[in-house]
Amino acid sequence: MKKILLPLFLLIYCCKIQAQKIFEKDYTKPEATEIAEPKPKIVAPGIGNAPPSDAIILFNGRNLDNWVMSKDGSPCVWKLKDNVMTVSLEAGDIQTKQKFGDCQLHLEFRIPANVKNTTNPNNAGNSGVFIQERYEVQIFDSYNNETPLYANGQMGSIYKQVIPLANASSKPGDWNTFDIYYTAPRFRFNGTVEKPATITLVHNGVLTLNHFEIQGTTQYIGIPRYEPHDKAAIKLQSHGSEVSFRNIWIRAL
Ligand code: MG
Description:
Elements: H1 2-23, E1 56-59, E2 67-69, E3 79-81, E4 84-86, E5 94-96, E6 103-110, H2 115-118, E7 127-131, E8 135-139, E9 175-183, E10 186-187, E11 193-195, E12 198-203, E13 206-213, E14 235-236, E15 244-252
Antiparallel strand pairs: 1-15, 2-5, 3-4, 4-15, 5-14, 6-9, 6-15, 7-8, 7-14, 9-12, 10-11, 12-13
The structure holds magnesium ion (MG).
């Protein structure tokens, strides 16, 4: 019996050592924390102001083909002049034909130089970028401007949810950039929120929202709320001020 037990014990012991080598990493070795695959996809960076190679161009100054009117899906009638697209006060909001979830979004916009003389102070420079048609990143004239009195409605706020970390506004007449990094909300099968949306905003190169957890739709009146949704459009707001846009691109993540 002993003749059998000893080799059997040795065999089990050797197998255990071998299994440890295979399944347990030796963290005294550098390769234990090195991951070879998968390699990230190649994305060529844009030169100068150009978008990265995998970006979807939403507006490059040539036409409005990627946009429709939000109210009825008809062709976009915002003004197009000198490679710049400008809000039509009469026509209303516009939105992309294409729908998006997680994304990196770049856009440039300009509040009219004469905004203080031509616009109701409550709408000075008012526009906005609605991510997934629901969550507004506010555009407003917040350069030397105390209106609106609620800071969670000024430029770069998630409207009525959060005050941006800084006011990096360009003066009216000069261009601003928004770089938005967005993770869409996740919903459970029963429609409740599994994970809220998050957003990071870099405004004119300044971090102004840092992975902010969006609380739901951005209401003028009432509390934010979530309703389950799938991918949805990027919407630009027409809200009493002739804000202009250029160089809009997005990377679906
Ligand atoms: Mg707005």
